[in-house]
Structure formats: structure tokens, C-alpha cells
Specification:
The chain is built from five helices and 14 strands. It is globular, with a radius of gyration of 21 Å. The protein is an alpha+beta fold. The protein has helices spanning 39-46, 112-129, 163-166, 227-248, 251-257; strands at 14-16, 21-30, 55-61, 64-69, 73-78, 82-88, 93-97, 101-106, 134-146, 183-189, 193-203, 209-219, 223-224, 258-261. 22% of the residues lie in helices and 37% in strands.
Length: 263
């Protein structure tokens, strides 16, 4: 199969006064480092992010493994617990440290420059204290949830979401009967970057439609982990995610969300 990588160019510099962005996550995966669970090392890393993250908390999660059994349904068993450390801030910022990865997430995103600066602080601490060597995966995820008071049915996204994304909602026979829709698309981007987009018109708790745009941009380079290479990749991923977000919206609707110059 021949697929042409995305060629969208740099995104417009647009600041959205009415931004629908609800969550941003950056995750860097590396070789297994048992020292990431050592509380003394975690405290040392915490010093690099102490200006915006405070509370330290050890977390243990149990996974549930489901195995199909021919003629007998499925068998369920508890997987091995996974441990990690979280460093939480008071304003919706969370850093997570585990033996295989570290991440930074926020629900109080201001700009890429702001987020990138805080991620650099966390990376500097991890690189200094834990010294990971191999970048096995890097991912950047943006989750937007668009809610418009005038939208009462999925068909009302016409003129707001680009028509190519709406699918059956625009069908002349069945479109008016659609309650919700969801689709997963995977794009190929330059330099072996992939974008997994989950999108569609879903229902909020009050049964009103909300349009989800969940861009998961990632690469699995299997290369030496350096700050320079890592942030070159992240800058490129950010540009790809923003450009795709702009493509998904009707131009007039995008303009209606903007205000002022981008930070």
C-alpha cells in the first residue's frame, strides 16, 4: 500500500478565545529503569518542577486480563500491578514517572510555548537523575470537546465541522436519524510520525451533542534519547496536530472561535 505523508505546512498562528481544548498529554517512553520508583530519585526530580508541581503520590494500578476460551466464553484474571509516582499541581498539572515512561498532562493549557517550557523542566530532571538512553516512543495528545448551544442534533454540525468528517450525518435518508457517531482514522505524517484521530458527535450527560476531536500524534523511533532530538520531534508533532485541527473545522466556524494574536 502506498500512502502519501501529510503535507499541511505550518499551521496558522491563531489564538482561540473559545478554545474547546480539554486535555493535553505528552508522554516519553524509554528502556526499563527500576530507579524511577526510588522515592529519593523522585524527590530529586521533583526539585526541577517544584515551581508548578507539589504533591507527591505513589500510585498502584491493577489491570484485568480477559482471555477468550473456546466454547466457554472468556476467562478473567488480575494482571500484575503497575506502580508509578505522580507529582500533582493545584492547577490541573500532573507529571507521572514509571519505570518505562514519564509524562506531563494538563487541563489548564495556555500555549505550546508554556507547555513546552514546563515539559523541558521535567525532562531535564529525568535526564539528570535517571539518565534514560533509548527513546522507544514519543507521543503528544490533544483532546478537544466542542460544544455549541445551537447544536441540538448531530446534523447541526454541518457548517461547523468540515463536511468530509461528518459521514452519515449528511446522508439524505439516514442522516436525520443519527444519534451519535464515532470514527477512528490513522494518518501517516513525515518522518514516520502517525496520527490516530478519534472523532465524532457524541452525547454529553444532558444528551446534547458534543463534537470530539482526539488527536494522538506519536512516533516509535527506537533511537538515542537526547533533549535536542526529543523537542525537535515534539515541535513537529505539535504543528501537525494544530494543522489537522484547523482542517477539521469549517473555516467560518474556526474564525468565530478566534480572538487576538496567538501567544
Amino acid at each position: 500500500m502506498t500512502v502519501r505523508p501529510l503535507d499541511l505546512g505550518p499551521p496558522e498562528s491563531i489564538h482561540l478565545e473559545e478554545s474547546p481544548l480539554t486535555l493535553v498529554v505528552a508522554q516519553i517512553r524509554h528502556e526499563h529503569l527500576a530507579a524511577a520508583l526510588d522515592s529519593r530519585r523522585v524527590i530529586d526530580i521533583h526539585e526541577y518542577v517544584a515551581d508548578f508541581l507539589g504533591e507527591l503520590k505513589e500510585v498502584e494500578e491493577h489491570s484485568l486480563q480477559v482471555s477468550p476460551q473456546i466454547g466457554r466464553g472468556v476467562a478473567m484474571s488480575a494482571g500484575a500491578p503497575t506502580r508509578s509516582w505522580q507529582i500533582r499541581g493545584k492547577d490541573s498539572w500532573v507529571a507521572t514517572l514509571s519505570p518505562e515512561a514519564f509524562s506531563l498532562e494538563t487541563r489548564a493549557y495556555q500555549s505550546w510555548t508554556h507547555f513546552r517550557g514546563r515539559l523541558e523542566q521535567l525532562c531535564a530532571g529525568v535526564m539528570k537523575i535517571l539518565s534514560p538512553q533509548v527513546l522507544s516512543r514519543v507521543g503528544l495528545r490533544y483532546i478537544d470537546e466542542i460544544a455549541v448551544e445551537e447544536v441540538e442534533a448531530p446534523g447541526d454540525w454541518v457548517g461547523r465541522i468540515d463536511s468530509a468528517y461528518l459521514g452519515p450525518v449528511r446522508h439524505p435518508e439516514v442522516g436525520a436519524s443519527v444519534m451519535k457517531s464515532e470514527q477512528i482514522i490513522e494518518f501517516l505524517a513525515p518522518n514516520d510520525v502517525r496520527v490516530r484521530l478519534r472523532h465524532g458527535s457524541l452525547l454529553a450527560e444532558d444528551e446534547t451533542p458534543v463534537y470530539l476531536l482526539d488527536h494522538d500524534v506519536f512516533a516509535q523511533p527506537g533511537s538515542r534519547l537526547t533533549m535536542v532530538d526529543l523537542f525537535e520531534r515534539l515541535d513537529s508533532m505539535h504543528s501537525i496536530a494544530v494543522a489537522l485541527f484547523h482542517q477539521s473545522l469549517d473555516r467560518d466556524f474556526l474564525v468565530s472561535l478566534r480572538g487576538g494574536d496567538a501567544p
